Every structure is written in structure tokens, then in C-alpha cells.
């Protein structure tokens, strides 16, 4: 069967796109590895407009319910399915998935978001989820009474430290660079706590422990001195990576479209992804550099990554897709 639209992703962007597609009666298939997106792990989302506070798991349920309420016969939902490749064909796009299914459509909206960047250090793979965590808001209570380390000196690193300070006797934050990237207010608030210490120019070289984390070694990048910290938990906050690998081949070699907005383009055009692997989009319409492809949310080069922004961008894309499909008829 050929659809009008394929949506890839079940986070805020993919879900918002699915609701709009169904309501506009666009024949759509939505492929989602899972619903909810990144803040699924959050215990308390407080800035989802219209809802004072809700846990990530409830957000997931609400997303699915909202989609299913409008799906009828117009929206096919393929949950627990992962898009593995995206190819352009003469009459549109083909997506192959890990369930060995192939879906075809005139247009595609990519809303696959991003995943947390993993730490590269000796022992980090082995102890992942065994004392190494990527979510302080989810896991901080499990580290009650244990000294902990946060790696990464941006806002998310300092915020993770703030949450850990409620449970840990001491929290040490290690920043690889020569200065912290967190905003002044957050930095100042967290640094006031006498249980907190922050160190710059620190390269984590090893995390050790028999079964669970027992300690961490870091190198002072200026002096080369190695310090050993006996800690029971390590929280990694070193950014995220867009989940765009599956469309790299398609977008990497694409030429700059004639309609591309000059000021949004990197100085040197190197295809439809930026150097971080984010999909370049025209921010008025969310169009990607290939005719018939749109993208929304954290997978794009949008500056600010938030639930509300991802949903708004997806809605913008759907308005444009609708008009584009009308012209194709
Ligand atoms: C711990 C944490 C807390 C946060 N708290 C907040 C907050 O309080 N407020 C706020 O506004 N923002 C918050 N954010 C940011 C917010 O979660 C993101 O901006 C938002 O989730 C981005 O939505 P998205 O739909 O673009 O991508 P994502 O949320 O990343 O969703 C992408 C979806 O696509 C699926 N997917 C990925 N690849 C494929 C594929 N190949 N095939 C099929 N499906 C695929 C994923 O499983 C996922 O469901 C938080 C982020 C984190 C990590």
C-alpha cells in the first residue's frame, strides 16, 4: 500500500504530527520505536503547557490515547518498530524497518529525536546502568548515602548535581573544558551548597567497580595528575546525538535546493545534515533539503530543544505537507 505520508518517531514531534495528519485526513503510517520520547524518563515535567505537572510515563499514555482517538482508518500506528533505512524512489520514499516491513509514501516527516551521548572511558560500557546513569531526575533517589560524580558542566550537568545533592553526601562535577557552560544563575545556585564541588579541565579516564561503580579516575588536563574518587554513582550529562544515522546516505550528498534560505545555511554546504548530524530545515516550513521530506523536533538544527517546541514544529510541518500534497493531486 502507498501512503501519502510516513511519520518516523513517537515523541512529542511525531505524535503531534500524527494527530494533525489524521485530522487532515492524510493517509499516514506512523513508525515509532516507542511512544513518549526523551522526557519519558522524567518523573515530573512541569512546563508542558496546560498541565501543571506530570510524570513522563503519563505523557506517554496520553500521547498514545490522543493518537488513537483520531486514528480511525486514516492513520496506521506501527509501535515497537524501528526505521532502519530511508530511500527516495521515483514516486516518493521507502522506509525499511527492523520488522522487515517496507512502507512507501509520497512524503516523509522525520521526528526521530535524539539519544544521550555516551561516555567514552575505560569501564564505562561495562558499568552502564550499574552505577552509571544518564538521568538524575529518574535515578537520584537510588544513590541515597553515596558520594556521586556528575560529568559535564553545562546546565543539565548542574541541574543533575542539584537533584543529587538531596541524596548524596557529596557531589563532584567534572568539566572537560576550561570553563563551565551553565548559565550564571544555575551555576551560582548549585555552587552555594557546601557538599558540592566543581572542577574544570578534568578528563574522565576510568570508571571502576566489580559489579557496580566503586570509583572514578580523572586526569587534570593541564598537569596530567590522576585523581581517584571513591564514588558510588556517575551521572553523565555530555549532550545528545541526533538519531539520524538511518538517513545519512540519503541526506549527506544532497545539493543545496534553490529555495533554501541563505541565512539558515552553514557557511559551506555539505549536504542536508549539519556537522552534528542534525537535519537542516527551513524553519518557516520544516522542509528538509530533499523535495518531499520534512523534519521536526530535536533531530533538526532547531536551536532550543523542548517538548513544546518539537510539537509546534511538527504542526508547522503538517500544515505545509497538507498544502504540498494538495498540489500533487
Ligand atoms: C531527562 C530529560 C528531561 C527533559 N525534560 C523536559 C521538560 O521538562 N520539558 C521540556 O519541554 N523538555 C524536556 N526535555 C527535552 C524534550 O524531552 C525533548 O526536547 C523532546 O522529547 C524532543 O521531542 P522529539 O519528538 O523531537 O524527539 P524525542 O523525544 O527524542 O522522540 C523521538 C522518538 O522517535 C523514536 N525513534 C527514534 N529513532 C527511530 C527510528 N529510527 N524509527 C522509529 N522510531 C524512532 C524514539 O523512540 C522516540 O520515541 C527533557 C529531555 C530529557 C532527556
From the structure above, extract its key features:
329 residues, alpha/beta, FAD/NAD(P)-binding domain, 7-stranded mixed sheet, 5-stranded parallel sheet, 7 helices, 23% helix, 25% strand, elongated, binds flavin-adenine dinucleotide
Q: What gross morphology would you assign?
A: elongated
CATH architecture of the largest domain: 3-Layer(bba) Sandwich
| Structure classification | alpha/beta
H/E series: EHEHEEEEEEHEHEHEEEEEEHEH
Mean pLDDT: 94
- Uncertain residue segments: none
Write the SSE topology.
Elements: E1 2-8, H1 12-23, E2 28-32, H2 56-71, E3 75-79, E4 83-89, E5 92-97, E6 102-110, E7 114-116, E8 132-133, H3 136-139, E9 148-151, H4 155-164, E10 171-174, H5 184-191, E11 196-199, E12 202-208, E13 215-220, E14 226-229, E15 233-236, E16 240-242, H6 248-252, E17 293-295, H7 307-328
Parallel strand pairs: 1-2, 1-6, 2-3, 6-17, 8-15, 9-10, 9-15, 10-11
Antiparallel strand pairs: 4-5, 5-6, 7-16, 12-13, 13-14
Helix pairs in contact: 1-2, 1-7
The structure holds flavin-adenine dinucleotide.
Description of the molecule:
Strands 1, 2, 3, 4, 5, 6 and 17 form a 7-stranded mixed β-sheet that branches. A 5-stranded parallel β-sheet has the order 8-15-9-10-11, covered by helices on one side. β13 and β14 (about 225-230) form a beta hairpin. The chain is built from 7 helices and 17 strands. Helix content is about 25%, strand content about 25%. The longest helix has 22 residues, at about 305-329. The protein folds into 2 domains: about 1-115 and about 240-329, FAD/NAD(P)-binding domain (3-Layer(bba) Sandwich), CATH 3.50.50.60; about 130-235, 3-Layer(bba) Sandwich (FAD/NAD(P)-binding domain). It is elongated and about 65 Å long. The mean pLDDT is about 95. The protein is α/β, with parallel strands linked by helices.
